[in-house]
What we know:
This protein has 325 residues and is α+β, with helices and mostly antiparallel strands. The chain has helices at 2-18, 25-31, 33-39, 49-65, 98-110, 117-130, 156-165, 239-246, 265-270, 292-297, 309-324; strands at residues 71-74, 80-83, 169-173, 182-194, 197-204, 209-214, 218-224, 253-260, 273-278, 281-288, 303-307. The two termini are 46 Å apart.
Amino acid sequence: MAIAKAERLMNLALCLLGTRRPLSKRELRESIEAYVETFGPEQTAPGSDDAFNRMFERDKDDLRELGLVIETVESLDGEIGYLARRDSNRLPAITLDAEEAAALGLAAKVWQQARLAGAASGALQKLRAAGLPEDVDPYEAHSALEPRIPVHEAAFEPLMLACRDRRPVVFDYRKATAARPETRQVEPWALECWRGHWYLAGFDRDRGAERVFRLSRITGKVRSRGARYTAPVPDVVTVRETVASWAGETADRSALIRLRAAAGYPLRAKATAVRELGDGWDELEIPYGHGLDAWLVEFGPDVVVLEPAELRADVVDRLRAVAKG
């Protein structure tokens, strides 16, 4: 049905763009095959006028929403006609100064990954045609800037397309504290890279709330679903802020932990104080925020929480859950 509608809209647009004079509804009905197949000629199917008028008005509104400028013209005898003048629907010439072209070229360079290199190269060719100066080479090997956004996860491309097309998805996700993955049904909103890792923000249907997923923890294939979104998409999706709060970046308290010597370097980098205890252990004071318990569990037996008691209890509960499988 979607393909049939797209073809009908394309034929209507071509018909309106190709005419030199306004065309009436009757002429359009008899000229476009989809209308003829659905309603038949006006003279042989007089009872279908209302249905055709409703479809034509919807199609006309859809084309205008897509940006086509359709004029309504009334002839001397009072008949209404429609046309889309080419000069009104022609895009203006694109001009780029050196700084704008360099910025766009730099953006194209960022996506030189295996799956996106072709799209980035095609975009660069269009930029060349639009005025990208020949002396601006974003792929120059000796450039002072070498921007890279790593995209190693197989889930990135299907999730990027699902975000763009507003399609719900299903995937298996393994939490940091879980022994095995579980199926999640998500309405994807946005993808964002934070500290070298890609995250997906969206509405988790099973939990009925917003969730953020780390792509490296998605196992198996991402499957698309044809259903519509059930929750509104927010105007601003704060992926980084959410991940930062879960990682303790916005912490306003401190936790005291024991950490095995020569282990847990990410924890050491966040520590506000470090004291050697001897016997192969150190004592660290680290910022304590939402999600710190999940992060500490990842270090397994190398970490022992001393205080606060609530954090220690959360970590013990998570470890017991992993042990039970």
